Amino acid sequence: MLPVVLIGVSLVLLGIVGLQFMYLFYIDRVFRERKKYLQQLEHRSDQLEEKLAAANKRIAEQNELLEAGYPRSIDEVWAEVIDEH
Questions:
Q1: Helix 2-69 / helix 74-84 crossing angle, nearest 10 deg
Q2: What is the tens place of the pLDDT at every residue in 40-84?
Q3: Domain, as residue range, for 46
């Protein structure tokens, strides 16, 4: 009777170890996917920062052109542009 109980306990423990290994592999896969996703987000962030810098540069250039063409304040110029449309 005792050997049967010991075999049953060992099989239960073996099943628990198997479940722990499956969970370990699952957590490892999730970690790798999140790491990959984070790298994609960082790459996208870099692209958006470049676009933002280009947009800010273009706005600065346009403001310089407005200042050169219209020595008045920019608010007055934009008010006129809005009124024209």
A1: 90
A2: 999 999 999 999 999 999 999 988 887 777 666 656 666 666 666
A3: 2-84
Report, as an integer, the average pLDDT of 24-51: 98
CB 59 within 8 A of CB 52: no
What does the CA dihedral 57, 63, 69, 72 come to, rounded to 10 degrees? -160
Overall domain count for the chain = 1
Side-chain-side CA neighbours of 74 within 13 Å: the count stands at: 9
Please tell me the distance from the alpha carbon of residue 71 to that of residue 65, in angstroms, as a whole number. Answer: 10
